[in-house]
Amino acid sequence: xxxxxxxxxxxxxxxxxxxxxxxxxxxxxxxxxxxxxxxxxxxxxxxxxxxxxxxxxxxxxxxxxxxxxxxxxxxxxxxxxxxxxxxxxxxxxxxxxxxxxxxxxxxxxxxxxxxxxxxxxxxxxxxxxxxxxxxxxxxxxxxxxxxxxxxxxxxxxxxxxxxxxxxxxxxxxxxxxxxxxxxxxxxxxxxxxxxxxxxxxxxxxxxxxxxxxxxxxxxxxxxxxxxxxxxxxxxxxxxxxxxxxxxxxxxxxxxxxxxxxxxxxxxxxxxxxxxxxxxxxxxxxx
Length: 286
Description:
Elements lengths: L1 E2 H4 L5 H4 L12 E4 L14 E4 L8 H16 L6 H9 L12 H17 L21 E2 L3 H6 L5 E2 L6 E3 L4 H10 L2 E11 L5 E13 L8 H11 L1 H7 L6 E10 L2 E10 L4 H9 L7
């Protein structure tokens, strides 16, 4: 077994050459992983085999097909998503192709397919897990159970119905919403268009807690960023301008799942929202 945790170093390359893996021969070549494939940078090697394990014979196809997955990887839908995808789109330049195990494919598919569906896409036939070996001898397998036990999984956002973005509200209404949920944070979001034409959303400054609830200070910023990416259709509705804006995001954490239930755009004229957040520190919910 070649665990994903050890995949980046490939210190066993000499041993791998002696296995019964697929013989690359002279039909493929080693090429540098292009700059456009940022998903597969800093993974422990800089050269890949072409054609790759997806059957792409030229770098134009590799870049076009792989960049569509970079957004999904950024959502954090599965910790092995990048390893799995890069082993196929940018296989390491060894004498033997190292395929992902079927168990890794299934794990990534089960976690990331719902995110794809949230974006109106289904898990592609080209990544049918049955094409990969079920025998975990010389393939990339998921991390061990011991690793999972040590690294406790944090609450994760999921694809959800878009939360209400209230424009008109009272101080009492805001406090009632705070009481009905177990976290509320104040964040400054910016939106810009990338070179490829996609929307990119970034959190500027530190996240300010109004009601911390079950949120973890060191993970909240990353969690909100993941929610913005997973629920991009909701994010687009929230951010109506390219000008950075402050939002109050309110929601619940239940059984390891993060749900955003309410969003307020914080504008200077919103005295009711300002008063509600100040009063919250001493407010008693009924």
